[in-house]
Specification:
The chain has a domain of 181 residues: 2-Layer Sandwich (Alpha-Beta Plaits), CATH 3.30.70. Helices cover 46% and strands 8% of the residues. The chain contains 19 helices and 7 strands. Helix 1 crosses helix 3 and helix 5 runs antiparallel to helix 16. The longest helix is centred in the first third of the chain and has 32 residues. It is globular, with a radius of gyration of 28 Å. The protein starts with 38 loop residues before the first helix and ends in a 22-residue tail after the last helix. 37% of the residues are buried.
């Protein structure tokens, strides 16, 4: 390859001496954190970098909320510059929503937040969500929820005593630390009995773009509680935010006002003004007709395709093969969330269809797509690893937190049965004399679910399913994410439910790609662990 002459040093001339790093000129970059700007104003200021030479300090000094609204109305809504909304991040507290609604709320690939832990808190105190039901149905519903909580209390208390008997308190370990650790292990077992109706609370910090998508998705739900949650999120973003410093600011304003009324008014205007976090960016959030219509038609297509087929037994984790056809994977992905069949069984059925029918199924997923709609999640295909996972809902909620993968989640049902909590090294339900209590409570919960479902209330019935109920989901990812999840979720401090799933993921990769197995830093989850280590 020929190089320009100015890139090649002259053989007769010594190469220039490099300046040592220690004496290199300092960077002239100006870096500073920003606090106190309204989210939409800050988004506008950052967007101005592409259209103005002003610094951030200069931009924020001249921008008003009104100017930000005008800018966003033009560039975000009219011109479609959706990435601008990624620049506005908003913290929310969402409290007293059901576990069922919380799963729907956090089902975003770009989401950051934390939820109450079933390991460290007694959820008996949380209460529960009751959907709109006829009086007789409401009475049966309440009785079913109360029965599950009674069993939850009994299993938690008795398992704690069984753990005390099995695991002596080490010398030097404080009483409260010992009891707290054993209670956490007992809650790991008892949580299987928590109904989906159980209330929880969570906090999230999301961009306005994620929020807009989240609200639209929630408003499109089959569940009334989730649709109402979408409305409340939109109202919270459009209305006045809670000011954590309001009380302190009020005191300061009163002190200043007592000295100088004019000055006091100016201080009050600044410190006590209402801040609306994203009134412009969420004002057009609405139910997604694309999602609603597609869900209905794909559900009908899945029912027609699989009519008469029994659900075949499947392992806890199944690493599915690449069909060799993107069209078959797309069609399978679109149908999977709308049925309760395993990926392998569904994919085999789709693959047997004529090519033209497979193409029709793919087209069905885009049939109702509007101008600004993102494609359904099922179109995110072409990943190297697809794990078809069948596990308890409680464990799934922990796996659900992994965002660097595509998750296709099936609906809640009783057809897969329920799991029994088993942790190597920990007393079993039988050893703790809890087997009958557990089975009776789970069976009663399932019976109440079926009765309400068969009475024409399938959405309300789902709230009666305990967290031990199995749910099927497809996780698509690359090798790096498969390794990360397997290592992280198999760690000894984790819950035994997802530890088992992470281990099965590793074994599936090991079987298919044995040369890569040595890259995993993983311990056999079947070995007993020190239950006092967290």
């Amino acid at each position: 390859m020929a190089y320009p002459c100015w890139d090649m040093p002259d053989a007769a001339t010594p190469a220039p001496t490099k300046t040592p790093l220690s004496t290199a000129a300092e960077s002239q970059a100006d870096v500073y954190a920003i606090h106190g700007a309204d989210p939409e104003v800050l988004a506008y200021a950052m967007a101005k970098y592409s259209r103005s030479s002003l610094s951030m300090r200069e931009s924020l000094a001249e921008i008003s909320s009104q100017r930000a609204e005008q800018f966003l109305n033009t560039f975000y809504f009219q011109y479609g510059h959706r990435s601008i909304a990624d620049l506005a991040h908003i913290p929310f507290a969402i409290e007293k929503l059901s576990l069922l609604a919380a799963i729907a709320l956090v089902d975003e690939q770009r989401w950051d937040g934390q939820e109450r832990s079933t390991r460290y808190q007694n959820f008996r105190k949380s209460g529960w969500h009751t959907p709109a039901l006829a009086p007789e149905q409401k009475s049966a519903y309440t009785s079913a929820v109360e029965a599950l909580f009674t069993a939850y209390d009994a299993v938690g208390a008795q398992m704690t005593e069984a753990l005390k008997a099995a695991i002596p308190q080490p010398d030097g370990m404080k009483d409260d630390a010992y009891l707290r650790t054993l209670k956490a292990r007992a809650f790991d077992v008892a949580r299987y009995l928590l109904p989906m109706a159980t209330n929880t609370s969570l906090g999230q910090i999301v961009s306005a773009r994620t929020l807009e998508s989240q609200i639209s998705r929630l408003l499109s739900s089959e569940f009334a509680e989730i649709r109402a949650l979408g409305e409340k999120l939109r109202s919270a973003a459009a209305g006045a935010a809670w000011n954590v410093h309001h009380a302190e600011a009020q005191v300061l304003c009163n002190e200043v006002s007592s000295v100088d009324d004019a000055c006091g008014c100016r201080v009050s205007d600044i410190l006590l003004r209402e801040v609306k976090t994203a009134p412009t960016l969420v004002k057009y959030s609405a139910p997604s007709e694309y999602a609603i219509s597609s869900r209905k038609e794909l559900g009908a297509a899945a029912a027609e395709l699989m009519a008469g087929q029994a659900i075949e037994p499947a392992p806890v984790v199944d690493l599915v093969e690449d069909s060799g056809s993107l069209e078959i994977e797309l069609a399978t992905s679109l149908l999977y969330p709308e049925c309760h069949y395993s990926w392998r069984q569904l994919q085999r059925t789709v693959a047997a269809l004529p090519a033209a029918r497979v193409t029709e199924l793919c087209a069905l997923g885009a049939k109702h797509r509007g101008r600004h709609d993102e494609l359904l999640r099922g179109f995110s295909s072409g990943h190297g690893f697809g794990f078809d996972i069948l596990m308890d809902i409680g464990g799934f909620r922990d796996m659900h937190r992994h965002r660097r993968c595509i998750q296709l989640i099936q609906g809640y049902t009783d057809v897969h049965g329920y799991d029994e909590p088993v942790c190597p090294g920990q007393p079993t339900l039988a050893e703790a004399k809890l087997a009958d209590t557990y089975k009776s409570a789970m069976d009663a919960g399932f019976a109440a679910y079926r009765a309400l479902r068969d009475a024409g209330e399938p959405e309300s019935a789902a709230y009666l399913l305990p967290l031990g109920t199995r749910i099927r989901s497809m996780f698509k990812m690359d090798f790096a994410e498969a390794l990360y999840i397997s290592e992280l979720r198999s760690a000894v401090a984790g819950h035994f439910s997802y530890r088992r799933v992470a281990w099965e993921m590793y074994l599936a990769v090991q079987k298919k790609h044995p040369a890569l197995a040595s890259l995993f830093r993983i311990e056999d989850v079947n070995q007993p662990v020190d239950l006092l280590k967290r």
